[in-house]
Design a protein that fits this description.
The protein is an alpha/beta fold and 283 residues long. The protein is 33% helix and 21% strand. β4 (58-61), α2 and β5 (86-90) form a beta-alpha-beta unit. α2 crosses α4 (102-109) and α6 packs antiparallel against α8. The longest helix is centred in the C-terminal third of the chain and has 20 residues, at 262-281. The protein is globular, with a radius of gyration of 18 Å.
């Protein structure tokens, strides 16, 4: 097995165990940093948020948790950008760790929020929907206003920025990943903000009793691995060892974030994990 893939799988195992066991660490501060060109990481130590910038305005993807909202705001300011220049806030999925800070950030930016149609009710109420596999074990969060649903394949533009929505449901009914291009030194890379495609569920939930959810996960897998993908930022940074890549880049590898296999590797792991879960339930 390739060494990089071994490291990747080890990072995924951490996501599956330690990170979920210690969610408080997800709200710890993280200094912002450039990912590539006009794309910056502005999230916390455990939950991703990405800022894509232009002279005509910026786009923010995700708001982290309620305790992380101020960290995201401070990180944007630290990079020298104005919160008032954020024109849209895009959401990956409607769980408190990714959407809990959106209401606070919306108040700071006055930006509308775009999300998958099937997640709008949860964002508007702050309460998980019954068709979420983790229903019953998810905390509430502050409701979000000025919402608009986004369709699969829909394009969001701000000046020269062009982001495309990709429906990647299953983890939540309206899960959405986002793609765009960022350029530096005359070279452009395909950027991906990958929504969670993890088959996580409440204690008594059985995927074998919910074939529609399984079908949604498999649809999300197929979409995820087919996206143009040079630089992947996962909803939780440890899922793709983002900070490990940052350390490599700082030391000696100028292209440490670039990995054209990242999206496919992620899906390979989670598809196998779902298959294992289904096999276990049938015993």
């Amino acid at each position: 097995m390739d060494h990089r893939l071994k490291v990747f799988i080890a990072a995924l195992c951490i996501v599956s165990t330690e990170a979920h066991a210690h969610p408080i660490a997800w709200d710890a501060p993280q200094k912002p940093f450039a990912l590539y060109g006009n794309t910056y990481y502005v999230g916390t130590a455990g939950v991703s948020a990405v800022l894509i910038t232009s002279p005509q305005g910026h786009i923010l993807i995700d708001g982290t948790g309620s305790k992380g909202a101020e960290i995201v705001a401070d990180n944007i300011r630290l990079l020298g950008f104005k919160l008032s220049d954020v024109k849209y806030i895009l959401n990956s999925h409607a769980h408190s760790d990714h959407a809990g800070g959106i209401a606070a950030l919306q108040k700071l930016t006055n930006a509308p929020v775009l999300a998958g149609h099937a997640n709008l009710a949860t964002l508007a109420s702050g309460k998980a929907s019954r068709d979420d596999p983790q229903y019953g074990e998810l905390p509430d969060f502050e409701p979000v206003i000025r919402l608009r649903g986004i369709r699969n394949g829909e394009v969001v533009t701000v000046g020269p920025l062009t982001l495309t929505a990709h429906a990647t449901p299953g983890h939540t009914p309206g899960g959405t990943s986002w793609t765009w291009k960022s350029c530096a030194h005359g070279k452009c890379e395909n950027m991906v903000f990958g929504d969670s495609v993890t088959p996580n569920a409440a204690t008594n939930y059985r995927y074998t009793d919910h074939p529609d959810t399984v079908a949604s996960l498999r649809q999300g897998f197929a979409t995820f691995e087919a996206m143009p993908c040079d630089i992947l930022v996962t909803a939780h940074p440890e899922a793709n060892d983002l900070f490990g890549r940052l350390q490599q880049q700082a030391r000696y590898e100028s292209s440490a974030f670039i990995d054209p296999n990242a999206c496919r590797d992620l899906v390979t792991y989670y598809r196998a994990r779902l298959d294992k879960r289904l096999a276990t339930e049938k015993r």
